[in-house]
Amino acid sequence: MTVDDANNGGGTDPAEQAGPAEQAGSAEQGGPADAAEPPTYPTPHHVVDHTVEPTDDPLAIRLEQLILGADRRYTPFQAARTAGVSMELASRFWRAMGFADIGQAKALTEADVLALRRLAGLVEAGLLSEPMAVQVARSTGQTTARLAEWQIDSFLEGLTEPPEPGMTRTEVTYPLVELLLPELEEFLIYVWRRQLAAATGRVVQAADDEEMVDRRLAVGFADLVGFTRLTRRLEEEELGELVEAFETTCADLVAAHGGRLIKTLGDEVLYAADDAGTAAEIALRLIETLSHDETMPALRVGIAFGTVTTRMGDVFGTTVNLASRLTSIAPKDAVLVDSALAEELTRTGEAPVSETQAAEEAARAEKEGGQAPAYRFALQPMWQRPVRGLGVVEPWLLSRRPT
Asked: What burial letters (b/e) apply to 331-367, b meaning 16+ CB within 10 Å?
């Protein structure tokens, strides 16, 4: 996988994904909606439905009732009507949340009705526009779907090994979910509130209204070198362990040093920081840490500094594209930065304009009995080169200055 196009997805249009209420009019409902054939919304190949189709399996139904806290009661049409929401709007919300098409099966609960009422109520009160409410549904659905998949695939799978011969995994699952569910729910709310507080704090500290949307950030890509070749040599389990170790290490280092992990893509991570020094420190820490791990391939990092558009937790724009391109041309176990980030490091006194200047400052300080400036980073200009789609760029090789 290359880093060039990693940031260009931008999410899926909610209108593309099928929801649980496609067949808005059925024979039992009557009314104008029944006059025409209901529209169908095929799920594109790149969209994954994150819900389970209704089932008659007794254990599956018991687990569903335990997790949802309610019995199946409504068809999609009945849920929308009870919530006082049009089928069209209900369908948009459900598609945005990533729910699979269930036709007119009676598979929805009071919680589904309440969720529709809440979203529609925010629109009616003027707190959210309808497109914004759909975005809220989509971002929440995409984020929690990934979390739920991870918890089932990794977390619960490891804990539901049958304790005794003859027991099935499904027999262990119900009591385990019953015990874990309230704890995981409370923890999820706690983490969400903490993250919301941090994000709100960053926004209110913005210099002006425009900066709240289009902000100046340092954006970095970290990419494992030769990952495609590695996938041909390793077994699936070994590859999974390597990717998990890489993502975990990166996530921990980014968070510990004040950055924000935007997303992980298997062999690469995308992170952002409010200032150039933080982004540079994270990049060098990643190189230093992973280079001491013999199981890891070499790493390369590219960082750019400039205006970035943030949307649904992701980042977009020329700055992000430039960081991606710098990563693709960076040497192994090295960090390349753009000229804007280099200028920011020198402006804030974290790197000298040149090594000649640093030497002159040190000599002057020694002669006068003073203290020479302490720089954290060193910058070495590289050859200018054309970069596809971005014109000619001047990369700088970032390194740590010896103490």
From this structure: eebbbbbbbbbbbbbbeeebbbeeeeebeeeeeeeee
**Percent of the chain scoring above 90 in pLDDT:** 33
Residue 97 exposed, middle or buried by CB count within 10 Å (0-12, 13-18, 19+):
buried
CB-based contacts of 382: which residues, under 8 Å, 6+ apart? 336, 394, 395, 396, 397
| Residue 19 DSSP one-character state | -
User: Which residue type, as a one-letter code, is found at position 296?
Assistant: M
* Rounded CA separation 272/238 (Å): 29
Q: What pTM was computed for the model?
A: 0.62
Alpha carbon distance 351, 5 (integer Å) = 31
Q: Render pLDDT for 63-89 as a digit per residue (tens, 0 to 9).
A: 888 888 888 899 999 999 999 999 989
- Of 332, 5, 312, 286, the C-alpha closest to 132 is 312
DSSP per-residue string spanning 143-188: HHHHHHHHIIIIIIHHH---SSTT--HHHHHHHHHHHHHHHHHHHH
Between CA 78 and CA 85 the distance in angstroms is 10
Mean pLDDT across the stretch 306-330?
A: 89
Using CA atoms, how far apart are residues 359 and 232, in angstroms rounded to an integer? 49
